[in-house]
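Help wanted!
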Amino acid sequence: MENRYDLNKNLAQMLKGGVIMDVTTPEQAKIAEDAGACAVMALERIPADIRAAGGVSRMSDPSMIRGIQRAVSIPVMAKVRIGHFVEAQILEAMEIDFIDESEVLSPADDVFHIDKRKFSVPFVCGAKNLGEALRRISEGASMIRTKGEPGTGDIIQAVRHMRMINQQIRRIQSMREDELYEEAKNLQVPYELVCNVCKDGKLPVVNFAAGGIATPADASLMMQLGAEGVFVGSGIFKSSDPKKRAQAIVKAVTNYNDPSILVVVSENLGEAMVGINEEEIELLMAQRGL
Amino acid sequence: MNVGVLAIQGDFAEHQKALQLVGVSSFEIRKLSDLQQSLDALILPGGESTVIGHLLHETQLFSPLKTMIDNDLPVWGTCAGMILLARTIEDEQKSYFGKIPITVKRNAFGRQLGSFHMTGTCSGIGEIPMTFIRAPFIKDAEEEVQILSSVNGYGVAATYRNVLVTSFHPELTDDLQVLKYFLQRSQENARENMSQFFAVPAFA
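Answered by r_m:
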């Protein structure tokens, strides 16, 4: 199993420097792949629509996911509800490439996350601070992403979460060895993981940004803050020209440190998704699953 | 020696770390102006070949890199890099650099559940750890291609003139043998070019 976990962390490494896009149909998946997405997230409704519709949202219909698997050669991811290990079993049986145990869907369990070590396929999980990230990793997550606030087009929460995780990592690096025990206790995570973070100065798995990215500048901001790649959900297919915006965000992630290229890719993209400010939101998805 | 690592997407940082371990300098190639530096060898990393292939054109890096590869710059492609260097990709019309006369099959071992790790033998290199992540393999190769290693009868490492391709990712392991093999070949290549250059007798 250890070997399997390494292979799963390796797949996440292959996605680095890339953009993972939410898609709801095989046609959108094809647009995403052609625009340069390094993976697609297959789901029935993008977060902005989930937010608008309300109600319980669940894993997508397998036949819809299969349609997307057939349409593209890049990895296909899909979401399950937090704690819903049977939805995960179903996705594993479909040979999905990555499972997102996601706060975007309605949680199925308000105490326990999925025991991800029981699975052969990799999992990505959201986190808004280092404690959450390391708890998900100790449960077997092969990749972490910021929670951000999905479906809003507002970047503030993703920024907050990325800064928080990186600040906490820097703090641990400055600690004496004997202080790490107390830190592990405070973060409610295994001591060994705290030691790893102290030694490497980074999470033991790849860390992407997600939740609220709507423009090439947003994507570049998250990369400059230390993300190793980005998820874009509603930002692309809720905008007026998805294909162009998708391509622009891909280029912005590759050249995140080059403002002269960011100028060019930011031009004439049409309307961005309308978006909602965090104060206007009634449902904070980031509060799900601690 | 200076090695350029294509850094558009994928695990280029892992390649650069390995180069650092063997004491060879390297630099990232992300945009056209990065090619102002001279390079003795080129590495195309693992990642998603459709993304890297797409961005090669978008960034206008494709033509200058293709010219260098066609002019026998030593190049090593891992996984996605192998697909970019192959002359034919199964079930697809287009190819990318097309330098090595092989036909590759994408995701040849299946989806992520088909990814695996093994120890295998690479001729000219020896026994090495091999990590395959949604890897391609070589379905067909022309005679002049030298297959260095096979899995289930399909080539997973091969050389042809200035090109080295591997389906697996040595850069994800601690083993540096394949990298050293590539660097040694690159040095030999550089010496040959030098001898061509100095072929005119100095005191004619």
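OP: Thanks! One thing I noticed: The interface with chain A takes residues 7-14, 30-31, 46-48, 50-51, 54-55, 58-59, 79-80, 106-107, 110-113, 115-117, 131, 133-134, 169, 172 of chain B (CB under 8 Å).
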